[in-house]
Amino acid sequence: xxxxxxxxxxxxxxxxxxxxxxxxxxxxxxxxxxxxxxxxxxxxxxxxxxxxxxxxxxxxxxxxxxxxxxxxxxxxxxxxxxxxxxxxxxxxxxxxxxxxxxxxxxxxxxxxxxxxxxxxxxxxxxxxxxxxxxxxxxxxxxxxxxxxxxxxxxxxxxxxxxxxxxxxxxxxxxxxxxxxxxxxxxxxxxxxxxxxxxxxxxxxxxxxxxxxxxxxxxxxxxxxxxxxxxxxxxxxxxxxxxxxxxxxxxxxxxxxxxxxxxxxxxxxxxxxxxxxxxxxxxxxxxxxxxxxxxxx
Length: 296
Known about the structure:
Mean pLDDT: 82
Radius of gyration: 20 Å
Distance between the termini: 54 Å
Strand content: under 5%
CATH topology of the largest domain: Hypothetical protein af1432
Helix content: 55-70%
Order of helices and strands: HHHHHHHHHHHHHHHH
Structural class: mainly alpha
Protein backbone atom coordinates (compact mmCIF):
# COMPACT_ATOMS: atom_id res chain seq x y z
CA UNK A 1 0.00 0.00 0.00
CA UNK A 2 2.78 2.39 0.92
CA UNK A 3 4.63 1.58 -2.33
CA UNK A 4 1.49 2.29 -4.42
CA UNK A 5 0.89 5.60 -2.63
CA UNK A 6 4.51 6.60 -3.15
CA UNK A 7 4.29 5.73 -6.85
CA UNK A 8 1.10 7.82 -7.30
CA UNK A 9 2.73 10.71 -5.46
CA UNK A 10 5.81 10.51 -7.70
CA UNK A 11 3.60 10.60 -10.82
CA UNK A 12 1.74 13.63 -9.46
CA UNK A 13 5.02 15.38 -8.73
CA UNK A 14 6.28 14.60 -12.21
CA UNK A 15 3.09 16.03 -13.75
CA UNK A 16 3.52 19.16 -11.64
CA UNK A 17 7.07 19.56 -12.96
CA UNK A 18 5.86 19.12 -16.54
CA UNK A 19 3.14 21.70 -16.05
CA UNK A 20 5.66 24.14 -14.56
CA UNK A 21 7.84 23.75 -17.66
CA UNK A 22 4.88 24.17 -20.01
CA UNK A 23 3.90 27.32 -18.13
CA UNK A 24 7.21 28.87 -19.15
CA UNK A 25 6.06 28.69 -22.78
CA UNK A 26 3.91 31.78 -22.36
CA UNK A 27 3.08 32.28 -26.01
CA UNK A 28 3.57 30.63 -29.35
CA UNK A 29 7.38 30.76 -29.84
CA UNK A 30 8.68 33.85 -31.59
CA UNK A 31 7.80 33.84 -35.27
CA UNK A 32 9.88 35.39 -38.03
CA UNK A 33 8.96 39.07 -38.52
CA UNK A 34 7.56 38.38 -41.97
CA UNK A 35 5.11 35.80 -40.58
CA UNK A 36 3.96 38.07 -37.75
CA UNK A 37 3.41 40.95 -40.16
CA UNK A 38 1.61 38.76 -42.68
CA UNK A 39 -0.75 37.47 -39.99
CA UNK A 40 -1.42 41.02 -38.81
CA UNK A 41 -2.38 42.05 -42.35
CA UNK A 42 -4.49 38.95 -42.90
CA UNK A 43 -6.49 39.75 -39.76
CA UNK A 44 -7.23 43.27 -41.02
CA UNK A 45 -10.28 43.50 -43.30
CA UNK A 46 -8.89 46.64 -44.92
CA UNK A 47 -5.68 44.99 -46.13
CA UNK A 48 -5.14 45.11 -49.87
CA UNK A 49 -3.68 42.28 -51.93
CA UNK A 50 -0.70 44.48 -52.77
CA UNK A 51 0.11 45.13 -49.11
CA UNK A 52 0.13 41.41 -48.43
CA UNK A 53 2.24 40.69 -51.51
CA UNK A 54 4.76 43.37 -50.50
CA UNK A 55 5.24 41.81 -47.04
CA UNK A 56 5.44 38.17 -48.08
CA UNK A 57 7.69 38.94 -51.07
CA UNK A 58 10.44 40.16 -48.73
CA UNK A 59 11.41 36.51 -48.22
CA UNK A 60 11.47 34.38 -51.36
CA UNK A 61 11.74 31.17 -49.35
CA UNK A 62 8.45 32.11 -47.69
CA UNK A 63 6.89 32.77 -51.10
CA UNK A 64 8.14 29.37 -52.26
CA UNK A 65 6.45 27.67 -49.28
CA UNK A 66 3.12 29.35 -50.01
CA UNK A 67 3.33 28.36 -53.68
CA UNK A 68 4.36 24.79 -52.78
CA UNK A 69 1.19 24.40 -50.73
CA UNK A 70 -0.98 26.07 -53.38
CA UNK A 71 0.30 23.66 -56.06
CA UNK A 72 0.12 20.56 -53.86
CA UNK A 73 -2.66 17.94 -53.76
CA UNK A 74 -4.10 19.89 -50.84
CA UNK A 75 -5.96 22.21 -53.20
CA UNK A 76 -6.08 20.26 -56.50
CA UNK A 77 -6.14 23.46 -58.54
CA UNK A 78 -6.51 23.04 -62.29
CA UNK A 79 -3.89 25.66 -63.11
CA UNK A 80 -0.37 25.99 -61.78
CA UNK A 81 0.00 28.83 -59.30
CA UNK A 82 3.28 30.51 -60.21
CA UNK A 83 2.90 33.90 -58.55
CA UNK A 84 1.91 35.09 -55.10
CA UNK A 85 -0.78 37.47 -56.34
CA UNK A 86 -2.44 34.61 -58.24
CA UNK A 87 -2.28 32.41 -55.11
CA UNK A 88 -4.04 35.13 -53.08
CA UNK A 89 -6.66 35.60 -55.80
CA UNK A 90 -7.37 31.88 -56.22
CA UNK A 91 -7.21 30.79 -52.57
CA UNK A 92 -8.46 33.89 -50.78
CA UNK A 93 -7.40 35.41 -47.48
CA UNK A 94 -8.83 32.66 -45.25
CA UNK A 95 -6.82 29.90 -46.90
CA UNK A 96 -3.69 32.05 -47.07
CA UNK A 97 -4.11 32.72 -43.34
CA UNK A 98 -4.24 28.98 -42.61
CA UNK A 99 -1.10 28.43 -44.68
CA UNK A 100 0.71 31.23 -42.83
CA UNK A 101 -0.32 29.80 -39.44
CA UNK A 102 1.11 26.41 -40.42
CA UNK A 103 4.32 27.98 -41.72
CA UNK A 104 4.68 29.95 -38.47
CA UNK A 105 4.48 26.76 -36.38
CA UNK A 106 6.89 24.96 -38.68
CA UNK A 107 9.43 27.78 -38.38
CA UNK A 108 8.93 28.19 -34.63
CA UNK A 109 9.14 24.53 -33.64
CA UNK A 110 11.81 23.35 -36.03
CA UNK A 111 14.70 21.87 -34.14
CA UNK A 112 17.95 20.18 -35.02
CA UNK A 113 17.86 16.58 -36.18
CA UNK A 114 19.32 13.97 -33.92
CA UNK A 115 19.31 10.18 -33.94
CA UNK A 116 16.08 10.20 -31.94
CA UNK A 117 14.08 12.68 -33.99
CA UNK A 118 13.94 13.18 -37.78
CA UNK A 119 12.44 16.63 -38.28
CA UNK A 120 11.58 16.18 -41.95
CA UNK A 121 9.89 12.81 -41.37
CA UNK A 122 7.88 14.26 -38.49
CA UNK A 123 6.70 17.40 -40.26
CA UNK A 124 6.08 15.58 -43.53
CA UNK A 125 3.73 13.23 -41.67
CA UNK A 126 2.03 16.29 -40.14
CA UNK A 127 1.65 17.92 -43.55
CA UNK A 128 0.36 14.72 -45.14
CA UNK A 129 -2.22 14.40 -42.36
CA UNK A 130 -3.25 18.02 -42.91
CA UNK A 131 -3.53 17.55 -46.67
CA UNK A 132 -5.53 14.33 -46.48
CA UNK A 133 -7.73 15.76 -43.73
CA UNK A 134 -8.61 18.87 -45.74
CA UNK A 135 -9.54 16.79 -48.79
CA UNK A 136 -11.62 14.41 -46.68
CA UNK A 137 -13.42 17.31 -44.99
CA UNK A 138 -14.35 18.75 -48.37
CA UNK A 139 -15.53 15.38 -49.70
CA UNK A 140 -17.69 14.90 -46.59
CA UNK A 141 -19.07 18.47 -46.90
CA UNK A 142 -17.59 19.44 -43.54
CA UNK A 143 -17.52 23.22 -43.62
CA UNK A 144 -14.41 23.87 -41.53
CA UNK A 145 -11.95 22.32 -44.00
CA UNK A 146 -9.45 25.13 -43.45
CA UNK A 147 -9.42 24.49 -39.71
CA UNK A 148 -9.02 20.78 -40.46
CA UNK A 149 -5.85 21.65 -42.39
CA UNK A 150 -4.41 23.45 -39.35
CA UNK A 151 -5.60 20.72 -36.95
CA UNK A 152 -4.05 18.01 -39.11
CA UNK A 153 -0.72 19.77 -39.19
CA UNK A 154 -0.72 20.30 -35.42
CA UNK A 155 -2.24 16.99 -34.29
CA UNK A 156 1.10 15.61 -33.08
CA UNK A 157 2.94 18.82 -32.22
CA UNK A 158 3.01 17.78 -28.56
CA UNK A 159 5.66 15.24 -29.61
CA UNK A 160 7.85 18.09 -30.83
CA UNK A 161 7.32 19.84 -27.48
CA UNK A 162 8.46 16.73 -25.60
CA UNK A 163 11.54 16.45 -27.80
CA UNK A 164 12.45 20.10 -27.28
CA UNK A 165 11.59 20.69 -23.61
CA UNK A 166 11.82 17.20 -22.06
CA UNK A 167 14.73 15.73 -23.99
CA UNK A 168 15.76 13.04 -21.49
CA UNK A 169 12.18 11.83 -21.18
CA UNK A 170 11.85 11.80 -24.96
CA UNK A 171 14.96 9.63 -25.29
CA UNK A 172 13.61 7.22 -22.66
CA UNK A 173 10.27 7.03 -24.52
CA UNK A 174 12.07 6.44 -27.83
CA UNK A 175 14.17 3.67 -26.29
CA UNK A 176 11.08 1.98 -24.88
CA UNK A 177 9.29 2.14 -28.25
CA UNK A 178 12.25 0.94 -30.33
CA UNK A 179 13.79 -1.65 -28.02
CA UNK A 180 10.89 -2.91 -25.92
CA UNK A 181 8.11 -2.78 -28.53
CA UNK A 182 5.90 -0.53 -26.41
CA UNK A 183 3.31 1.63 -28.20
CA UNK A 184 4.37 5.29 -28.25
CA UNK A 185 1.39 6.71 -26.27
CA UNK A 186 1.82 3.96 -23.67
CA UNK A 187 5.52 4.77 -23.32
CA UNK A 188 4.64 8.45 -22.86
CA UNK A 189 2.27 7.58 -20.03
CA UNK A 190 4.90 5.39 -18.36
CA UNK A 191 7.70 7.95 -18.60
CA UNK A 192 5.84 11.28 -18.39
CA UNK A 193 2.53 10.37 -16.82
CA UNK A 194 0.73 12.00 -19.76
CA UNK A 195 0.69 11.86 -23.55
CA UNK A 196 1.58 14.32 -26.30
CA UNK A 197 -2.17 14.85 -26.82
CA UNK A 198 -2.56 16.08 -23.24
CA UNK A 199 0.37 18.46 -23.69
CA UNK A 200 -1.09 19.79 -26.96
CA UNK A 201 -4.45 20.40 -25.28
CA UNK A 202 -2.82 22.28 -22.39
CA UNK A 203 -0.85 24.59 -24.69
CA UNK A 204 -3.73 25.17 -27.11
CA UNK A 205 -5.89 26.27 -24.19
CA UNK A 206 -3.20 28.75 -23.16
CA UNK A 207 -2.97 30.04 -26.74
CA UNK A 208 -6.76 30.34 -27.22
CA UNK A 209 -7.02 27.98 -30.17
CA UNK A 210 -10.48 27.28 -31.64
CA UNK A 211 -12.28 24.54 -29.71
CA UNK A 212 -12.54 22.17 -32.68
CA UNK A 213 -8.78 22.26 -33.39
CA UNK A 214 -8.04 21.69 -29.71
CA UNK A 215 -10.44 18.72 -29.61
CA UNK A 216 -8.89 17.22 -32.75
CA UNK A 217 -5.41 17.38 -31.22
CA UNK A 218 -6.66 15.90 -27.94
CA UNK A 219 -8.73 13.03 -29.36
CA UNK A 220 -7.17 12.20 -32.73
CA UNK A 221 -6.31 8.72 -31.40
CA UNK A 222 -9.80 8.09 -29.98
CA UNK A 223 -12.39 10.48 -31.47
CA UNK A 224 -15.28 8.60 -29.86
CA UNK A 225 -14.11 9.98 -26.51
CA UNK A 226 -14.71 13.58 -27.62
CA UNK A 227 -17.87 15.08 -26.12
CA UNK A 228 -18.06 17.80 -28.79
CA UNK A 229 -16.41 18.59 -32.13
CA UNK A 230 -15.99 14.85 -32.60
CA UNK A 231 -16.36 15.18 -36.38
CA UNK A 232 -13.10 17.08 -36.80
CA UNK A 233 -11.35 14.68 -34.43
CA UNK A 234 -12.64 11.74 -36.52
CA UNK A 235 -11.47 13.32 -39.78
CA UNK A 236 -7.97 13.86 -38.34
CA UNK A 237 -7.99 10.28 -36.99
CA UNK A 238 -8.68 8.91 -40.48
CA UNK A 239 -6.18 11.26 -42.13
CA UNK A 240 -3.51 10.28 -39.58
CA UNK A 241 -4.22 6.60 -40.29
CA UNK A 242 -3.70 7.03 -44.04
CA UNK A 243 -0.63 9.27 -43.66
CA UNK A 244 1.00 6.54 -41.55
CA UNK A 245 0.05 3.94 -44.13
CA UNK A 246 1.65 5.95 -46.94
CA UNK A 247 4.86 6.48 -44.93
CA UNK A 248 4.59 3.16 -43.10
CA UNK A 249 8.29 2.64 -42.36
CA UNK A 250 8.90 6.15 -41.05
CA UNK A 251 6.28 6.50 -38.31
CA UNK A 252 8.33 5.90 -35.18
CA UNK A 253 5.83 7.81 -33.05
CA UNK A 254 2.73 5.74 -33.65
CA UNK A 255 2.48 2.51 -35.60
CA UNK A 256 -1.17 1.74 -34.89
CA UNK A 257 -2.98 0.78 -38.08
CA UNK A 258 -6.68 0.57 -37.29
CA UNK A 259 -9.53 3.02 -37.64
CA UNK A 260 -11.59 3.37 -34.47
CA UNK A 261 -14.98 1.67 -34.83
CA UNK A 262 -16.96 4.75 -33.77
CA UNK A 263 -15.59 6.86 -36.62
CA UNK A 264 -18.13 5.49 -39.12
CA UNK A 265 -21.04 6.70 -37.02
CA UNK A 266 -19.44 10.05 -36.29
CA UNK A 267 -18.82 10.73 -39.98
CA UNK A 268 -22.07 9.05 -41.06
CA UNK A 269 -20.24 6.92 -43.61
CA UNK A 270 -20.05 3.19 -44.29
CA UNK A 271 -16.83 1.27 -43.88
CA UNK A 272 -16.94 0.36 -47.58
CA UNK A 273 -17.36 3.97 -48.73
CA UNK A 274 -14.56 5.23 -46.50
CA UNK A 275 -12.28 2.49 -47.85
CA UNK A 276 -13.05 3.64 -51.41
CA UNK A 277 -12.11 7.21 -50.53
CA UNK A 278 -8.90 6.16 -48.80
CA UNK A 279 -7.87 3.96 -51.72
CA UNK A 280 -8.30 6.98 -53.99
CA UNK A 281 -6.35 9.23 -51.61
CA UNK A 282 -3.54 6.73 -51.25
CA UNK A 283 -2.88 6.95 -55.00
CA UNK A 284 -3.26 10.73 -54.94
CA UNK A 285 -0.89 11.39 -52.03
CA UNK A 286 1.71 8.65 -52.46
CA UNK A 287 3.67 11.01 -54.72
CA UNK A 288 3.95 13.85 -52.24
CA UNK A 289 7.14 15.43 -53.63
CA UNK A 290 5.28 18.74 -54.03
CA UNK A 291 5.02 18.98 -50.26
CA UNK A 292 8.76 18.70 -49.66
CA UNK A 293 9.39 22.29 -50.80
CA UNK A 294 7.22 23.40 -47.90
CA UNK A 295 9.61 21.84 -45.39
CA UNK A 296 12.93 23.31 -46.57
